[in-house]
UniProtKB/TrEMBL annotation:
It comes from the Bacteria. Belongs to the GSP F family. Residues 1-21 are annotated as: Disordered. The keyword Magnesium does not apply. It comes from Blastochloris viridis. Pfam families: T2SSF. Residues 49-163 form the Type II secretion system protein GspF domain. It is found in: Cell membrane. One of its GO terms (cellular component) is plasma membrane. The chain crosses the membrane at residues 149-168, 202-220, 355-380. It is a multi-pass membrane protein. This is Type II secretion system protein GspF domain-containing protein.
Length: 383
């Protein structure tokens, strides 16, 4: 039986390549891309099955065929056919990371970067294990965030519906009654009537603004300079920008320890980092990482130049400067990077909670304010 980390014999000879421009479209499936879409839970199961197949010593192409049969047995023909197509491409000599480019709606740059890491370290099982963990965390994170934001969002939507109904239907009747009694309409009820009537009469103006904004965002996103502008603005959003940075660096640090332990040189980490950095501004910081490594700098210096938080760089710096290297692998460095990942993951979780709390608070305040205006307008119209 082959070793647990065995790959297709042709896979292991494939050099690490940078993520291609065509694959970057996977970040924007609405504006392009091919292949079939896949439910996140099915994707998590795909990674689990692949890790299990790698553990049994199967080659990549054989593992893909086995997983395709498993999905076909569940009547999931679309995903099964896509995986079978990947198996054929791998059997023809392509690496799995290259074959995944055709399935842009199934796999993102993050998934391809993980497979690149597995090909670099000759340990595909570990890559699929990490991908399964990341997918599971993503599912749980979305579920938790949705649960906290759904209630205030629904409250805001229902409050807006209620205030429009009041402004268009209830208040005009009350205004006629007050006019018959010789009483003027109050400022708040009158303002709500005017605002809701304006929105109802000129709804197409708001739709036009939305369409124009969509076209502008799409056009900016279609060229490198515009995409850089959008991504730069993304990182400047309070709390959310920090969350994106921490999320990207956390994913990188998840791969670093086992890649270094597998003998991968820091220079070989760069294509994987670029694949994980979906934000073009962060990707430019990877160029600084590349420059430091190329000029003979340490891994800690490169991480610092790439924008990793100082708290995260310190364990790596200490391990590099003071820990002896036995053989060609610095075990203390690996432990330091693992600890750095734990710290950054904690910072990421705190930032995510802060962002969700802030967004939830804003929605609660807006929903409550609209509801109070609605109730106040009815009360004042009857005074």
């Amino acid at each position: 039986m082959a070793s647990p980390v065995s790959m297709n014999s042709k896979d292991s000879s494939v050099p690490i390549s940078k993520p291609s421009a065509s694959f970057s479209a996977s970040r924007f499936p609405l504006f392009g891309g091919g292949g079939v879409s896949i439910d996140p839970r099915d994707r998590e199961r795909f990674f689990f099955f692949m890790a299990m197949m790698m553990k049994t010593g199967q080659t990549t192409s054989d593992a893909l065929r086995a997983v395709a049969r498993a999905f076909r047995a569940e009547k999931n023909e679309g995903v099964a056919n896509a995986i079978a197509g990947l198996s054929q491409k791998v059997a023809q000599g392509k690496s799995l990371s290259q074959a995944m480019q055709t399935e842009r709606r199934m796999f993102t740059d993050l998934h391809r970067a993980a497979v690149l890491a597995g090909e670099a370290s000759n340990n595909m099982q570990k890559s699929f294990d990490i991908l399964r963990i990341l997918e599971d965390k993503a599912i749980n994170s979305k579920r938790a965030g949705l649960a906290e934001l759904l209630t205030p969002l629904l409250m805001l939507v229902l409050s807006l519906v209620s205030v429009f109904n009041t402004g268009l239907n209830t208040l005009p009747v009350m205004a006629k009654l007050r006019e018959a009694q010789g009483k003027p309409m109050g400022l708040i009820p009158g303002g709500i009537m005017s605002t809701t009537q304006f929105c109802a009469d000129y709804w197409y103006v708001f739709v036009g603004f939305v369409l124009i904004a969509g076209v502008v965002i799409w056009s900016l996103n279609s060229n490198p300079a515009g995409r850089t502008t959008l991504h730069s603005l993304q990182l400047k959003i309070p709390v959310y920008g920090r969350y994106l940075i921490y999320q990207t660096y956390t994913q990188m640090l998840l791969y670093f320890p086992y890649l270094i332990a597998s003998g991968v040189k820091p220079k070989q980490l760069i294509p994987i980092m670029e694949g994980l950095a979906t934000n073009s501004v962060i990707r430019r910081r990877i160029d600084q990482f590349n420059h430091v490594i190329t000029t003979g700098g340490t891994l800690a210096e490169a991480m610092n130049r790439a924008g990793f938080p100082e708290l995260i760089v310190t364990p790596v710096s200490v391990a590099e400067n003071y820990a002896p290297t036995e053989g060609h692998v610095n075990d203390v460095l690996i432990e330091g990077m693992t600890h750095a990942h734990t710290l950054l993951e904690r910072m990421l979780a705190d930032t995510q909670k802060r962002f969700i709390s802030m967004a939830s608070g804003i929605l609660w305040v807006l929903g409550g304010a609209v509801m109070m205006l609605d109730m106040l307008s009815i009360v004042l119209s009857q005074a």
